[in-house]
Here is the input.
Amino acid sequence: MSQSILSAEPVIRLVAFLGVLAAMALWEVAAPRRRREIPRVIRWTNNLALVLVDTIILRLSFPILAVGLAVLAEDRGWGLFNNFDVPVWLAIVVSMLLLDLAIYLQHVMFHAVPALWRLHRMHHADLDFDATTGLRFHPVEIMISMGIKLAVVAALGPPAVAVLLFEAILNATALFNHANIDLPRSVDRILRLIVVTPDMHRVHHSIDPRETNSNYGFNLPWWDRLLGTYVAQPAKGHEEMEVGIEQFRTRRDLWLDRMLIQPLRGPASGHALDPRVTLKDRK
Ligand SMILES: [Zn+2]
Ligand SMILES: [Zn+2]
Here is the structure.
């Protein structure tokens, strides 16, 4: 069972990725939420090229990825769930919840630690917000996240299918909640009780640091509500709000080479513990 999951993984992931990306792209054309500022060809070419770079670096630098480690852990009896007799459905549900919480906490950490913010701010420096923004992560951030995910998988010993499901769902929701799509407000209100919607995550891409440092969830919206980082709507409204961060606002900054060297450029301002951000908060 676990071995067949492992061999089917690349195809399942590629088909799901391309299918959801195409669906979001069509939806964005049919019902856009915001006017586009930058021609799509610049952003899509560079954001998609980055995915390729990220995938190659990840495959070359890790001997095993999350689903593979879950299979190995099942085999060797590593981790919590491989040492207790828990019903498999319960192990799947709890594993997926804990993986999602780990991703949320990791995202908070990437906003709070200045050196990590340098890596993660590249995700925020996109000057428009659409499905491909959800793919825009620096390769070093991708490697650190994979390291954290592997540690969680080793400690938890989740069923391999839970890890595969979690990663496939996260890939799909990341494309969905960055999409520039106009969901009816009533649908958004109900949907955001169970999943992070584009309107909820767009707040996180606001240039206002108080909004940048909120809504950290990628998948489940509950952690933000439970842990006090939830902001319902951007102060200026979704059409008027500015997307991005204060640094890196030229079209040239959207190119792949500039994205890759961005962590080394300029000060690490705007992170969650930046005194200017917290001072503004007290006003
Ligand atoms: Zn972020
Ligand atoms: Zn985002």
